[in-house]
Specification:
Layout lengths: L33 H7 L10 E5 L3 H4 L8 H4 L9 E4 L1 H7 L7 E5 L1 E2 L11 E2 L3 H6 L4 E6 L6 H18 L3 E5 L9 H13 L4 E5 L5 H6 L5 E4 L6 H13 L4 E4 L1 H4 L4 H14 L3 H17 L1
Parallel strand pairs: 1-2, 1-10, 2-3, 3-6, 6-7, 7-8, 8-9, 9-10
Antiparallel strand pairs: 4-5
Bound molecules: ribose-5-phosphate.
Length: 296
């Protein structure tokens, strides 16, 4: 039994102070539950409202990708600078220390390898597993216009239902097949369908023209994938433009871990995403960090 409240101090109910009711900091996320908002706050930094996700899940269909041959050697040094890691349960369990206390975005779809039809994916985890691994979100690939479009959409809607049951957000990833045109019209179509069908946030590719309309037409936050390796300055310019156009962050892989200096690159990206640094200044910072790392 608790002890009786015998304090002599007069009770204070602050009746003249209205209760706080603040909107959640992420677009379109006001109506979701506390647990989901808490998980999203382990992906997006509530101070900037943005995220630098480090994507290292490529091995789920292409095996030991360049730069990811030894995740323990090449990726662990980057962890202090990532807001979130996007990866498979295999790499999470075998290599990532459980002391990593930022968000994990778990790759939740899979099936085909690079040797077969990539859109032929299915859900590749059980919700129990996502809960057991204490993940902040689950990621599913959706091939709008692809051969197995409907199957991948149903993977997503089933995952959204599972995630909603337990308060786990779902990241819908627009997978752009070789035959699709990478333009704003396609990205608007894909992102909007994915958001309409219930994901918490969307990952898509940046397109130089009218990306702001892709963001505007999507009712939930958008993060951009990096795509194939670019010169560092170009990747920083792309990240800057995406943020200026309203993206809520980046989910980058190859442009970080295939960089000539991955730690310097992810630090430079943080400057752009969280501090609104201009690309040239972020690139100068990258060069300084890179050279210092060489000397050290
Ligand atoms: C693709 O297979 C994965 O979803 C990657 O996480 C995604 O493509 C981001 O990686 P990158 O920046 O290398 O394109």
């Amino acid at each position: 039994m608790p002890e009786a409240d015998e304090s002599e101090k007069e009770k204070q109910f602050y009746v003249d102070v209205p209760a706080k009711s603040e909107p959640f900091f992420l677009k379109g996320c006001n109506s979701i539950d506390w647990g989901m908002k808490n998980r999203l706050s382990r992906i997006f930094d509530p101070r900037s409202g943005k995220t630098v996700m480090l994507a290292i899940d490529h091995g789920y269909f292409q095996g030991p990708t360049t730069g990811l041959e030894r995740v323990d050697v090449t990726i662990l040094p980057l962890l202090p600078y990532a807001d979130t890691l996007m990866l498979t349960r295999g790499i999470l369990r075998t290599i990532i220390p459980p002391t990593f206390d930022k968000g994990i975005v778990l790759r939740a779809s899979g099936g085909p390898s690079i040797l077969s039809e990539l859109s032929n994916e299915q859900i590749a985890i059980d919700i129990d597993e996502a809960i057991r691994l204490n993940v902040a979100a689950m990621a599913v690939q959706v091939f709008i216009g692809g051969k197995m479009e409907t199957q991948t959409i149903h993977n997503m809607t089933r995952l959204v239902d599972m995630g909603n049951r337990y308060g786990i957000p779902v990241l819908g990833v627009t997978a752009v097949g070789k035959e699709m045109s990478r333009d704003a019209k396609y990205m608007r179509l894909a992102s909007r369908i994915i958001a309409e069908l219930g994901v918490t946030y969307v990952k898509t590719y940046y397109v130089p023209e009218d990306f702001d309309t892709v963001v505007a037409a999507c009712p939930v936050p958008i993060v951009i994938a990096g795509g194939k390796k670019l010169p560092e300055l170009d990747a920083l310019i792309m990240a800057y433009n995406a943020i200026q156009d309203g993206a809520a962050g980046v989910d980058m892989g190859r442009n970080i871990f295939q960089s000539e200096s991955p730690v310097a690159m992810i630090k430079a990206l943080r400057k752009i995403v969280h501090e609104g640094e201009k690309p040239k200044a972020a690139y100068d910072f990258f060069m300084t960090e890179k050279n210092e790392a060489k000397q050290g």
